[in-house]
Design a protein that fits this description.
With 235 residues, this protein is α/β, with parallel strands linked by helices. The chain is 37% helix and 20% strand. A nine-stranded mixed beta sheet has the order 4-3-5-2-1-6-10-11-9, with helices on both faces. Strands 7-8 form a two-stranded antiparallel ribbon. α5 packs parallel to α7.
Length: 235
Amino acid sequence: MKYQRILLKLSGEALMGDLTHGIDPVRIDSYAKEIKKVFDLGIEIAIVIGGGNIFRGVSGASKGMDRVQADYMGMLATVINGLALQSALENNDVPTRLQTAIKIEAIAEPFIKRKATRHLEKGRVVIFGSGTGNPYFTTDSAAVLRAIEINAEVILKGTRVDGIYNEDPEKNKEAVKFESISFDEVLKKGLKVMDTTAFTLSQENKLPIIVFDMNTPGNLMNVVKGKNIGTRVDL
């Protein structure tokens, strides 16, 4: 295997499947099965998931809601998604722990770096909910921060697009895909991979990012094995 400890970043929207909002049970079960295949190889897996399928803080703030309140609502949405993914994984016989940056002891452990690392070492998938626990920070930032804290080797950003393109491939069929690209090139070309805070943090800590299509069965496994799937962002 190319990687032994990974952080998988999933968007909340990905859990909608063909629905317009909420969580599609078929989609989340398919994700759980893909994660289980990698888990069964002995790979240590941490996951950060967004909340955009339920509530997005920036969207709420743009409609007049207090930004801090809206962001906390978004953090709670990620906890809902974390609980759903935890349930789906455990239904597939994958031991899982949910840790949150905001204390919600009735349903999840508080985030403690040493405890999270120990869970990974003991063969449990760890889901990190509620982002960084701070408003004005995205779940992309949370993914990079947690990846650094647990010493993950790579961030795998599962999306509905099979990599990074020079233009939006859903709008322009002539868009060109990058097989690999440097952090500096991404910034120079103004490409959207993650928000600037998350991306800069990843660059400063020399943590590579691989953007790939999570909806294609077998892709997650192939990425972990080091196959040329998606786009790799590195120094």
